[in-house]
Design goal:
The complex is a heterodimer of chains A (453) and B (112). With 453 residues, chain A is mainly alpha-helical. Chain A is built from 16 helices and two strands. The longest helix of chain B has 12 residues. The chains are: A mainly alpha (453), B alpha+beta (112).
């Protein structure tokens, strides 16, 4: 509790500090506008892009919030679910991925996903090594904030997408294989898919709606999780209970908190749309957590705390593509669906097919993301966001577009993940040997123990 | 002297400790253990995966008592920990060759 209060007051303090600094800096920016119109004229925008300090302050904070979702949010959520002898390795996978993506993003990740569109498939290399980007640059994709912040914000999305897939690979994947996977998968899977949906690629041109990453993040990572889990094979030991559920709950709470940056921040501005995304996010998470809880209560006799946390995460996943398009009643429906369907994916589908999706990355992110993306096509309310009209508001075509976008992502990511795993298998091998797996990956991959009592 | 080793349900420990306070027993050693006798081998469904629960948490209590107190202690332990359900536990009595109080060097019954 104290940690949350400290974080809450830190949040307010930082936001206030930024606003004060912003207010002092505005006069300087007004005189520096000579630089901005030149950049805007080069991109032929009708009016010069201009930095709004409120938007900028919010987006700086939102970026930090999404970073928090990776470290420590996802690290704790996954780490607590892992066996104690694999907990550090599980967290390391998220941690190292964030670092790898951070670096590669500024080198080439940003330009290939958000650079000028080439045939709807990929971005150009015009901003390789962030060439031409300076403190006064503004991207046409985020017209009121510094481009550096837009770059950083998108970076955090790329990082967590890769890290999400690790949930299906833990307790048996070589660390070297994971490092290679992070590099290759981000490059050949995340960059194109992000470009297709958010970088004016072919799915965006088709009219696919994805406010904060239903397809780009969750469907993408979810199918990669499933494919990788199938190639890696099942763990040798029988499943035992999660190592530390208190970390799982803490992680889930941090994820929920950070998700406000993920969804509301995807408005790329401090405005009413961000407000709508915010309230939708919270509502869907709560509805999903309760739906999962009640279903589980009926199904297994007892409502588990893990179920509450999983339900909340499922709701957050499903509302991600819809957050800035639906109204609150849509959010409630999506939330309830996201508590029910991923529950059955985890409780019934997984044991039925027997794939070892260790932490239900496919069950919650893959299926939850697909559910959310498709329901966005149903519930998108033009009164919330004129850019999106769904089936219920007289546009049945949107549903089809959503299905196409999900299918494209599933196929591309699934096939590419398969190829990547095969390549890595040939180079360094993907799985630790049986003895290392028994000993625990903390010891075998890192030579460390979580607790040295 | 005898080592009385009791494996009991963890939630009966406090009551047993209270009961032993009224006897010649001046000390004990307690360990958290896992084990099974007839209580083992059921499966639980958790988060879509089937978990086999073999080992059940128990508490192991070790007492070294003079020979003339053994029967009283055994009766007392049984009375304080018996619930009548499977999983109550077991007691083992093992002969002890020597006991020493480290601080003073006393040995035998006076060391207990």
């Amino acid at each position: 509790m104290k940690t949350m209060e400290r974080m809450g007051s830190k949040f307010i303090f930082v936001a206030a500090l930024l606003l004060i600094i912003g207010a002092m800096v505005v006069p300087a920016l007004v005189t520096a506008e000579e630089a901005a119109p030149a950049a805007a004229a080069a991109t032929a925008a009708p009016a010069p892009n201009k930095i709004d300090t409120g938007d900028t302050a919010w987006m700086i904070v939102a970026t930090a919030l999404v970073m928090l979702m990776s470290i420590p949010g996802l690290a704790l959520f996954y780490g607590g679910l892992a066996k104690t002898k694999d907990a550090l390795n599980t967290m390391a996978m998220t941690f190292v991925t964030f670092c790898i993506v951070s670096l590669l993003w500024v080198l080439y990740g940003y330009t290939f996903s958000f650079g000028d569109d080439i045939s709807g498939i990929i971005g150009s290399a015009s901003k390789l090594f962030l060439k031409g980007v300076g403190p006064n640059s503004i991207s046409d994709l985020a017209k009121t904030i510094p481009e550096y912040i837009f770059i950083a914000y998108q970076l955090t999305f790329a990082a967590i997408t890769v890290a999400l897939a690790s949930g299906a690979y833990i307790e048996r994947m070589k660390f070297s294989a994971w490092v290679l996977f992070s590099v290759i998968w981000m490059t050949v899977v995340y960059l194109p898919v992000a470009h297709w949906v958010w970088g004016n690629g072919f799915l965006a041109k088709l009219g696919a709606l994805d406010f904060a990453g239903g397809t780009v993040v969750h469907v993408n990572a979810g199918i990669a999780a499933l494919v990788g889990a199938l190639i890696l094979g099942k763990r040798k030991s029988k499943p035992i209970m999660p190592g530390n559920l208190t970390l799982v709950i803490t992680g889930a709470g941090l994820l929920w908190f950070g998700w406000f940056g993920f969804n509301a921040g995807s408005a790329l501005a401090a405005n009413g749309l961000a407000g709508a995304a915010f309230i939708n996010t919270n509502t869907a998470a709560a509805a999903a957590a309760l739906a999962w809880m009640f279903i589980e209560w009926k199904h297994s006799g007892k409502p588990t705390v893990l179920g509450l946390a999983s339900g909340a995460v499922g709701g957050l996943v499903a509302i991600t593509p819809a957050a800035g398009f639906v109204n609150v009643s849509g959010a409630i429906v999506i939330g309830i669906a996201a508590g029910i369907i991923p529950f059955y994916a985890v409780a019934k589908l997984k044991p039925m097919f027997g794939y070892d999706d260790t932490l239900d990355a496919f069950g919650i992110h893959g299926i939850g993301g697909t559910l959310g993306a498709i329901l966005t096509g149903v519930f998108a309310d033009p009164a919330i966001n004129p850019a999106g009209t769904g089936l219920l508001y007289g546009n049945p075509g949107q549903l089809w577009t959503q299905i196409v976008a999900v299918a494209a992502t599933l196929v591309y990511s699934g096939v590419m993940t398969f190829i990547i795993f095969m390549v890595i298998k040939a180079i360094v091998g993907i799985r630790v040997d049986a003895e290392e797996e028994m000993r625990g990956l903390d010891e075998s991959e890192h030579g460390e123990k979580a607790y040295n009592l | 002297m005898k080592l009385v080793k009791c494996i009991i349900q963890p939630y009966r420990l406090d009551e047993l400790k209270e009961a032993l306070g009224n006897t010649k027993v001046h000390g004990m050693t307690v360990t958290e253990v896992k084990g099974f006798g007839r209580q083992k081998g059921h499966t639980e469904l958790y988060r879509g995966a089937e978990y086999t629960v073999d080992f059940v948490p128990k508490v192991e209590l070790e007492l070294v008592v003079p020979d003339d107190a053994v029967q009283q202690v055994l009766d007392l332990v049984v009375k304080a920990t018996r619930t009548g359900k499977v999983g109550d536990g077991k007691i083992f009595v093992i002969p002890v060759e020597e006991a020493i109080r480290i601080r003073t060097g006393e040995s035998g019954d006076t060391a207990l």
